[in-house]
Amino acid sequence: MALRPLYDRILVSRLESEEKTKGGIIIPESAKEKPLEGKVISVGNGKILDDGSVRELAVKKGDKILFGKYAGTEVKVDQEDLVILREDDVLAIVE
User: Fold this and answer.
1) Residues contacting 36, CB < 8 A, separation 6+
2) CATH number of residue 36's parent domain
3) Domain containing residue 59
4) Per-residue pLDDT for the chain (95 aa), expressed as one digit of tens each?
């Protein structure tokens, strides 16, 4: 099943979190936090402005982004956990 987000929404796949700390300590599954970094899978057509025109999104398919800890809605598609966010929830594009 394929999803195409609407308007200013973005479909993101979370990147895997680190298994070890920089000091070499292994982090158990129960102590890991959800990663705040992801890869853009798909983007909507753009944000509809007050005058009815559509503004393209700054984020493109394939971009690596940072987003807020509690941002977006989690969905499961074909056994893969994905997040749907608004463009406003994106904090930065990693270059």
Assistant:
1) 66, 67, 68, 69
2) 2.30.33.40
3) 9-17+28-94
4) 677 888 889 999 888 755 655 666 666 655 555 668 889 998 888 888 888 888 888 888 999 998 888 888 888 888 888 889 998 888 888 88
In angstroms, the CA 57 to CA 11 distance is 13
23 domain residue, yes or no? no
Q: Could you please report the per-residue DSSP string of 18-43? A: PSB-TTSPBPPGGGPPPPSEEEEEEE
Q: Flag whether 47 is in a domain.
A: yes
Residue type at position 82: L
Scan for tokens 């999803």, then name that residue: 3
Query: pTM of the predicted model, to two decimals?
Result: 0.74
